[in-house]
Amino acid sequence: MSNTIGNISTAVPTLPSAATPAAGGSQNDGGFGSTLSSAIEQVEQVHTDAQQQISDLLQGNRQDVHNVMIAVEKADVAFQLMMQVRTKIVNAYQEISRLQF
Q1: Other CB atoms within 10 A of residue 46 CB
Q2: Phi and psi, residue 99, nearest 5°
Q3: pLDDT 10s digits, 64-97
Q4: CA gyration radius for the chain?
Q5: Given this model, what pLDDT does residue 29 score?
Q6: Residue 77 and residue 7: Cα distance in Å, rounded?
Q7: CA separation for the pair 89, 28 (Å, rounded)
Q8: How far is the C-alpha of 65 from the C-alpha of 38, rounded, in Å?
Q9: Could you write out the DSSP letters of every residue in 14-61?
Q10: What's the rounded Cα separation, in Å, for the pair 59 and 5?
Q11: What are phi and psi of 78, to 5 degrees?
């Protein structure tokens, strides 16, 4: 299994098309919750893949330490991104809760 530098972008979760409003203005099928859930699932999948590659390396089923380290770094970058998104969401919630109506 060969990973190239071009494949590194797959570690960063991308927002699905549900993140942008549809032409009709209705977002009942998508929305923020489903977008966030999808991004978390993508990060979890990258993490699971890295764990599997580490396990294979430790059991002697792989010899390519380089690709395993790339998978671990992908998982780390994806996790750090999700932590930044979480922080931004919490900060936005706190800001909204301070508003007076």
Answers
A1: 22
A2: -70, 145
A3: 999 999 999 999 999 999 999 999 999 999 999 9
A4: 18
A5: 64
A6: 13
A7: 21
A8: 30
A9: PPPGGGSPPTTS--SSS-HHHHHHHHHHHHHHHHHHHHHHHHHHHTTS
A10: 26
A11: -65, -40
Structure token pair of residue 57:
């390396």
Task: For residues 61 and 93, give the distance between their C-alpha atoms in angstroms, rounded to a whole number.
Answer: 46
pLDDT band at 17, cuts 50/70/90? Answer: very low
Maximum separation of any 2 CA atoms in the chain, in Å: 62
Neighbours of 91 (CB within 10 A): 10
- Euclidean distance between CA atoms 71 and 76, whole angstroms: 9
Q: In this structure, which amino acid lies at residue 8?
A: I
d(CA 90, CA 30): 21
Hey, how many other C-beta atoms are within 10 angstroms of the C-beta on 71? 22
